[in-house]
Write a sequence for this structure.
């Protein structure tokens, strides 16, 4: 990944939002349901950061960084059934990102690497 993090305000904002998404996955009822769905599709998951979410009337769509390895798109209905739409490698995902979203992904990967390192992974 070519983006070098410099500690800018936007990076800190992304860091706060992404950390919040991880906390949401672990501490709220809906977040824990999504976390369980993620584990079904990615049993190797240790950490996850939501890169984007789109709430719809009957389902919600999530784009999630799993560990520091892969991006998955999932659809979770409001009755907690789920479908994995696709998974892509980070290099594939990077090809179509704007500069701002590249920075967001770099921050998410940095957070994941730190969390994995703290867990002895």
């Amino acid at each position: 990944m070519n983006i070098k993090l410099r500690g800018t305000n936007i990076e800190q904002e992304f860091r706060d939002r992404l950390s919040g998404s991880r906390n949401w996955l672990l501490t709220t009822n809906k977040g824990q349901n999504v976390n369980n769905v993620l584990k079904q599709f990615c049993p190797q998951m240790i950490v996850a950061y939501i890169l984007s979410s789109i709430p719809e009337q009957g389902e919600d769509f999530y784009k999630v960084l799993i560990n520091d390895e892969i991006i998955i798109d999932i659809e979770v209905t409001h009755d907690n059934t789920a479908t994995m739409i696709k998974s892509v490698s980070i290099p594939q995902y990077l090809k179509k990102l704007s500069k701002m979203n590249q920075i967001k992904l770099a921050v998410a990967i940095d957070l994941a690497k730190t969390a994995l390192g703290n867990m002895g992974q």
Notes: The first strand starts at residue 48 and ends at 55. The first helix runs from residue 9 to 27. Residues 9-118 form one domain.
